Amino acid sequence: MLIDSTSLRSSLYDSQAKWGVSTRYHWFKGYKLHLCTTAEGNILSHVLTTANRNDAAVAPESLVSLKQWDIELVLGDAAYDSEKVRQTAEQAGILFISPINRRNSKERKDAYGRVLPVLLKTRFGQWLFGLRRGIEQVFNELKSDGVEQPRWYGFHRYLLHVLCCILMHNFEFLL
């Protein structure tokens, strides 16, 4: 299972959209789509938030929704490196792995901080995190299918549009 988010720009005149920061757009006004997908690209969980929400703040909500799928392992990027995320995953019976976010911590002295950098240097660790390309591919497919629509005004209209795009994306797995 993979977890990540992507930026969805909105109109500058959208009063419900918020300003946020992304690696691609830097400062932008809009929303963020948080997804949990399988390695094959099937979307199992989603959350749409305003752009000013931190990934780690939304992750517990996504992880709790995965209980019904009997998921055992979730991979996230460094934005999800949070003690709260790991505790929520542990309570759900999920092993959560993400690289250490250097901006949020000094030298980590807990077991997670000592073991994870070593894991990421092994061939298995590199292969494991190479699977994260799958969720990036899902975001690219959704965006090329038109999920990012700056013409939509308002959170609920944007949410309806995103839900339709996710539904159409998941139909591919039924055929």
UniProtKB/TrEMBL annotation:
**Annotated Gene Ontology MF terms?**
DNA binding; transposase activity
Q: Which Pfam families match?
A: DDE_Tnp_1 (PF01609)
Lineage top rank: taxon: Bacteria
Q: In Gene Ontology terms, what is a biological process of this protein?
A: DNA transposition
Q: By its UniProt entry, which InterPro entries does this protein fall under? A: Transposase_11
Residues forming the Transposase IS4-like domain are 2-171
Write down what this protein is called.
Answer: Putative transposase
Task: Please report the organism this UniProt entry assigns to the protein.
Answer: Parageobacillus caldoxylosilyticus NBRC 107762
